[in-house]
TrEMBL record:
It comes from Alca torda (Razorbill). Its cofactor is Mg(2+). GO terms for molecular function: metal ion binding; phosphatase activity. Belongs to the HAD-like hydrolase superfamily. PHOSPHO family. InterPro entries: HAD-like_sf, HAD_hydro_PyrdxlP_Pase-like, HAD_sf, Pase_PHOSPHO-typ. This is PHOP2 phosphatase.
Length: 241
C-alpha cells in the first residue's frame, strides 16, 4: 500500500511565487515597465529568461540570488507537513511538478533540508552560464492546448505513473496538492479513488467548481485546504484507513 503525493511548488509549498520573489534582487526591487509588460500569455519561461538577463546585466550574482530565494516563506504548516512525510517515506512517494525552475527549487529545499522528502522534481531546467547569468529552458514540448507552452503537468504525471508501473509500482491513491490554473489539467487525469486538494481561494479551486457547475465534474474526490495542517490531518486519516 503506497500513496503518491504530487505537489505544485509556488503558492503551495512556498507561500509566494518564486519567479516574482527573485525581483527582490533587482535594483530598487522592481523591473522596468518595458520588461514587465513584455510577458505574453503561455510564454512565462521566455519572460523569466529576459528577467534573468536583466538581473545579470545589473551585476546580480548567483550568491545574491540564492540569499534572496532562501528567505521565501513556506506556506503555513508546510514545514511540519514535509517533516511528517519525511518520517513516513515507506508509505509515501512524493514528487513536485512545477513551473518554477530547478535552481530555485533546489536552493529552497536544500536550505530547509527537505530535498530528501521528494523522490523527483519536474520543473524547467535552469543553470548558470559561464558568464554568471541564470538561464532557463522549457521543461518539454507537448501538444496540450490547455497548458502553457513549456509544461503540461498532466503529461508529466502520466509519464511518471507509466514509468512507475514498468518498475512494478502502482499507487493505492494519488493525492494532488496545488493552487493554480495549470494544476487543473493533471487533476483531470485522477480517478475516483484519488484526491485533488486545491488551495482555498485560488484558481484551481475555482476551476474545479466551474467544472461541476458545467456538469462535467472531475472524477476524483476534492478536498480544499487553507493551511498545510489540513493536508497533514487528511494524510494521517489516510494511513489509518
Amino acid at each position: 500500500m503506497k500513496f503518491l503525493l504530487v505537489f505544485d511548488f509556488d503558492h503551495t509549498i512556498v507561500d509566494e511565487n518564486s519567479d516574482t520573489w527573485i525581483v527582490k534582487c533587482a535594483p530598487e526591487k522592481k523591473l522596468p515597465n518595458g520588461l514587465r509588460n513584455s510577458y505574453r500569455p503561455g510564454h512565462w519561461t521566455e519572460y523569466m529568461g529576459r528577467v534573468f538577463v536583466y538581473l545579470g546585466d545589473n551585476g546580480i550574482k548567483e550568491d545574491d540570488m540564492e540569499r534572496t530565494m532562501t528567505t521565501i516563506p513556506f506556506t503555513v504548516g508546510m514545514v511540519d507537513l514535509l517533516g511528517f512525510i519525511g518520517e513516513n517515506k515507506e508509505l509515501f512517494d512524493c514528487i513536485i511538478v512545477s513551473d518554477s525552475n530547478t535552481v530555485f527549487i533546489d536552493w529552497i529545499l536544500k536550505a530547509a533540508d527537505f530535498h530528501k522528502v521528494f523522490d523527483e522534481v519536474f520543473t524547467n531546467p535552469a543553470a548558470f552560464s559561464s558568464t554568471g547569468y541564470l538561464t532557463v529552458r522549457n521543461f518539454h514540448a507537448h501538444h496540450c492546448p490547455k497548458c502553457p507552452k513549456n509544461l503540461c503537468k498532466r503529461q508529466v504525471l502520466k509519464e511518471f505513473l507509466d514509468k512507475q508501473l514498468e518498475r512494478g509500482v502502482s499507487y493505492t491513491r494519488i493525492v494532488y496538492i496545488g493552487d493554480g490554473g495549470n494544476d487543473l489539467c493533471p487533476v483531470t487525469l485522477l480517478k475516483k479513488d484519488d484526491v485533488a486538494m486545491p488551495r482555498q481561494g485560488y484558481t484551481l479551486e475555482k476551476k474545479i467548481a466551474q467544472l461541476s457547475r458545467d456538469l462535467s465534474p472531475v472524477e476524483c474526490s476534492v478536498l480544499v485546504w487553507s493551511s498545510a495542517t489540513d493536508i497533514m490531518s487528511y494524510l494521517k486519516l489516510l494511513i489509518k484507513e
